[in-house]
Write a structure and sequence with these properties.
alpha/beta; 8 helices; 7-stranded mixed beta sheet; single chain; Rossmann fold
Length: 263
């Protein structure tokens, strides 16, 4: 987690973000059907809660898919709880957070926390969901974040990328009919973002949604401070008070494109 926010802000100012409304920023601003794949309850809120709330406000259809049950992650509850109670608690907290963001379409895949399967298997679940929902934007965490060690994040992120890559291939998973083009991709918590969106009008709801996961934050005020300071750092890149940053990739950039990592 972030330790030195001043150092982080210094790094953010060194990023090259094109402030013009390029194809990448337009992919975020114009998305009408958005699906967000969250490795655990709370990840979508942390990396994209402000953006998703704003998308709902402007009339976009938003679906959140929670991949794991987060049974291993309680940090603010010290007494032992049965696993089924933990799973139920995390689901309850997630639904409360989604309600705060205005999101009603939430699906739980219920893979065991810390044991989310490898990307190829996951991508079939994700393709089935995307072909049914027909999104024009898929959001998830960046699986190539340097030093990311959590297998659930790595596998979820790569699984989403594979699902986007193969979305429009009709001979892959013939039982899930292709009815739409492959969606654009937005990777949150990226070390090399190329698009920032203002969340000035949704920052309070983002914070409230994150803090709805009471079982996760022994010190809620400290977590709120981190969110606001990091969002303020991203906001400076966009010339606003608060922002969220993404690595946005078009479908043709996620296969044999040596320049996809460029801003």
């Amino acid at each position: 987690m972030i330790t030195d926010l001043e150092q982080v802000n210094g790094h953010l100012q060194s990023l090259r973000i094109n402030k013009e409304k390029t194809q990448k920023t337009q992919a975020l601003a114009s998305a009408k059907r958005i699906v967000s794949f969250s490795p655990h309850p709370d990840d979508s809120e942390i990396v994209a809660g402000g953006f998703l709330a704003g998308a709902v406000e402007r009339g976009a259809e938003v679906k959140v898919v929670v991949v794991s049950d987060d049974r291993m992650s309680l940090t603010s509850i010290t007494r032992p709880l049965p696993m089924e109670e933990i799973v139920a608690l995390r689901k309850k907290e997630e639904l409360e957070a989604m309600s705060i963001l205005g999101i009603k379409n939430v699906e739980f895949l219920e893979y065991t926390d810390s044991e989310v399967p490898e990307p190829r298997r996951l991508s079939r679940d994700f393709m089935r969901i995307m072909r049914a929902f027909q999104p024009d934007l898929a959001v998830t965490v960046d699986p190539f974040l340097p030093y990311e060690a959590h297998p659930d994040h790595i596998n979820t992120g790569r699984g989403v990328m594979e699902a986007v890559l193969f979305h429009a291939y009709p001979y892959i998973m013939r039982d899930a009919k292709v009815n739409s083009q492959a969606p654009n991709l937005a990777l949150g918590a990226s070390a090399i973002p190329n698009a920032v969106v203002s969340i000035d009008h949704t920052i309070d709801r983002k914070v409230t949604a994150v803090l709805a996961h009471k079982s996760q934050w022994p010190d809620p005020k400290k977590m709120e401070d981190r969110i606001r300071k990091l969002s303020a750092g991203y906001g400076k890149l966009e010339g606003c008070g608060y922002g969220e940053a993404f690595k946005v990739l078009l479908p043709d950039e996620i296969h044999v494109d040596p320049f996809a990592s460029l801003p």
